[in-house]
Design brief:
CATH class of the domain at 194-243 and 264-358: Mainly Alpha
Helix content: 25-40%
CATH architecture of the domain at 194-243 and 264-358: Orthogonal Bundle
Strand order of the largest sheet: 7-8-6-5-4-16
Largest sheet: 6 strands, mixed
Shape: globular
Bound molecules: adenosine-5'-triphosphate, magnesium ion
Strand content: 15-25%
Distance between the termini: 22 Å
Structural class: alpha+beta
CATH superfamily of the domain at 194-243 and 264-358: Transferase(Phosphotransferase) domain 1
Length: about 425
């Protein structure tokens, strides 16, 4: 689903209260009964006012009515959860406007947003389970047996975990985006002005970059971590001129465009992103994850840059010996200690693993085809062939009234970006950019 912030400005303070009430009620109810929404939201206008807001929220798809449920009730949609997160960022003054979507992955949407001063940031919205309901049958069976194992809950868990890793890595001096804030199934981070390695046709020094990436894998291992998805989509390459004066000279040459061969006056630095799936070096399958990350780098460098390292490895058993060496802080332990229950982590891990399996072999990911097997309708009704409560067809209750002129607290309003094409085009630098990726 796409985040459409247009309806936000039409929501009243009461509507936000009612939306929040549905969220609170969702903690214990798959479908939140209307009387419960009324009692949690405690609006001055009473039940009538609450119903008015319910209609308005259902009309714009932020909550969905379950018509054939045993009782009359509503469920928060992904859209509703998106709005609540944006509302939180807006009241923190962390987000003022929403710009373009720069990525639609299978597991997340990536949007460029801006704060009131116009500083660009990245909003990552986790959407676990978006593709799995038809393609991975085992997924739904697995989750059905687990209480509270809804996809919304897992997406929130993925965001919390990713944020915890990003903070820990940042504190330790790893090059990752700045973790700015986290709310529900989303995280807010700094925008890295760089291209994913996937889009780079050639680099000045493949051997040097390869060594740097392997060193990064080993540095993570020393801190007790394996990235678990260390591929060309999750490594952004920042370019900086080695000699700024020489660079200024070259910029004057009209022939130098992005697709030209790379200049030697460029230093590329990898910035790592995408952390919800990170695992500990003590994980039962750590060796497999470690080897897979290493193999991913090797395969990509061979295919893209025709570079094959003369050195074998690195090997897990050697990396394992370095964990915690020289006083390296165990980041796996630090994140584990930040309050994720074992059961929750098992659920998340299974969900991420199955998402990755659904995505196909590494390096073969094709965003276009990834999108085509995603059915927009599945967001709102992910259980269309089941017979329990949440499996009923969901219809929006659109008996709402119009003519709602009020506007809610302007401090937390999120604006639609103007045409912020500039937000989404990082500076084209000196590296040759590959066509069609
Ligand atoms: N902080 C950032 N700055 C700049 N670009 C970013 C940032 N975070 C993400 N992106 C862009 O969005 C893409 C997807 O982000 P990310 O890898 O975090 O999501 P994902 O869940 O892996 O999505 P997918 O399902 O496509 O793998 C990245 O490959 C990158 O191009
Ligand atoms: Mg990714």
């Amino acid at each position: 689903m796409k985040l459409d912030s247009k309806a936000m400005r039409h929501l009243t303070a009461e509507d936000w209260r009612v939306l929040t009430a549905v969220e609170i009620g969702s903690k214990n109810h798959e479908v939140v009964p209307t009387p419960l929404i009324e009692s949690i939201s405690k609006l001055r206008g009473g039940a009538g006012r609450v119903r008015h807001s319910i209609s308005a929220l259902a009309k714009v798809g932020l909550i969905a009515r379950l018509k054939e449920a045993r009782y009359d009730g509503y469920r928060l949609t992904y859209g509703g959860l998106d709005y609540l997160a944006l509302h939180t960022y807006a009241s923190q003054k962390a987000v003022y406007s929403v710009g373009n979507q720069i990525g639609v992955g299978k597991e997340s949407d990536i949007l460029v947003v801006a704060d009131a001063a116009g500083a660009q940031r990245i909003l990552k919205i986790h959407r676990l389970g978006r593709i799995s309901f038809r393609t991975v049958k085992a997924n739904r069976d697995y989750l059905r047996r687990r209480q509270g194992g809804s996809w919304m809950y897992l997406s929130r868990l993925a965001a919390e975990r990713e944020y915890a890793f990003m903070r820990a890595l940042k504190e330790e001096g790893f090059l990752v985006p700045d973790p700015l804030s986290q709310s529900r199934h989303t995280i807010l981070m700094s925008l890295v002005d760089a291209f994913p390695l996937r889009q780079i046709a050639s680099v000045p020094d493949p051997a040097g970059l390869y060594a740097e990436l392997i060193a990064l894998i080993l540095r993570l291992a020393k801190h007790g971590l394996i990235h678990g998805d260390f591929n060309e989509f999750n490594i952004l390459l920042k370019e900086e001129p080695i000699d700024p004066d020489a660079d200024a000279e070259e910029q004057k040459q009209p022939s130098r465009k992005g697709k030209e061969p790379p200049t030697n006056n460029v230093k590329v630095t990898p910035v790592l992103i995408d952390f919800p799936q990170m695992v500990s070096m003590d994980h039962a399958n750590a060796e497999m994850y470690f080897d897979r990350d290493v193999a991913c780098v090797k395969r990509f460098f061979e295919r893209r840059f025709h570079f094959v390292s003369t050195q074998p490895g690195p090997f897990f058993r050697d990396a394992k010996k370095t964990v915690g060496r020289d006083g390296a802080r165990r980041l796996d332990a630090a994140v584990e200690a930040s309050g994720f229950s074992k059961k929750a982590l098992k659920d998340l891990e299974a969900a991420i693993r199955e998402q990755q399996e659904a995505r196909g072999p590494e390096g073969e990911q094709d965003p276009a085809s990834a999108d085509s097997d995603y059915d927009e309708d599945e967001d709102e009704d992910d259980d269309d062939d089941d017979d329990d409560d949440d499996g009923q067809p969901v219809n929006q209750d659109d008996d709402g009234e119009d003519g709602r002129g009020e506007s809610y607290d302007e401090h937390s309003e999120v604006n639609e970006g103007t045409n912020r094409d500039d937000l989404t085009t990082p500076n084209i630098g000196r590296l040759a950019i590959k066509d069609g990726t």
